[in-house]
Amino acid sequence: MIFPPTLRVGDKIAICALARKITLSEIQPAIQILTSWGLEVVIGKSIAGDYHQFAGNDELRVSDLQTMLDNPEIKAIISARGGYGTTRLLDQIDFTLFAQSPKWIVGFSDITALLFHLTGLGYACIHGIMPSLFGRAGSEAAIESLRQILFDEPISYQVTGHNFNRPGEATGQLIGGNISLLNTIIGTPSDVDYAGKILFVEEIDEYLYNLDRMLVQLKRCGKLATLSGLIVGHMTDLRDNPVPFGKTAYEIIQEHTANYSYPICFDFPTGHETNNLALICGKQVHLKVKANGSLLEYVSEEVNL
After folding, report:
1. Could you report the per-residue pLDDT of 223-251, keeping only the tens digit for each?
2. Lesser CB count within 10 Å: N end or C end of the chain?
3. pTM greater than 0.70 (yes/no)
4. Catalytic residue flag (residue 202)
């Protein structure tokens, strides 16, 4: 796994919109915070893009991302927000120059597809808070965790226990993101092997029956059977039908993982809440789960470029 260089004061970080449109005013808090870290913020053309719900048409968004990927002076790229549209771009992106000067790519939600694509190519990336959420109440820990990772400061996560926790310890490469996107990329060039990995998942604005259907799909594809561990994050604003599905989101996940023995941590702060702690996709981690709490630590096993 290739890890991009650590950021330093004076480095350039780009903000692009890969999916849903956003305005410059909406990301002003992020620009101020990133600037306060000593970074020079470069605004992509997609931030002014407006094509129906997208931040410009596919051609604009591809061109914007490609420009930032190819520019060796840009040391990190953070997606302004999620929504929908990232998967439309992936097959049009050329990573040749990126490979010559890798940089951190940051995002979550719809950006899960790009994170998986990069991990499959052998590059570590960051599942973390995006500019659209900077400055909101409760986002402080998420923002600080992103800063610590970008500047290569020591970081680990201790979280409170949950009744559904399955105790145990596991070590493996960390992968994960939004469950809808995990399903979307199955069978595509962006998919990865889950065997021996520690998977983290989160979801928003889905019907409970559809969450169940997506877990069935992951299970039938063999994605859940060979994991070393599972981290279950935020399940935000999930909905039910007039005739109730009969299980909560966590109960659905518990049901579909009941026959496996690996440790499972529930209620980890990752996903569509302001407390969305940054996670390094592609890095080796050690997960220790107990009934009264869990610990996620990164394993030192690489040298940054």
Report:
1. 999 999 999 999 999 999 999 999 999 99
2. C
3. yes
4. yes
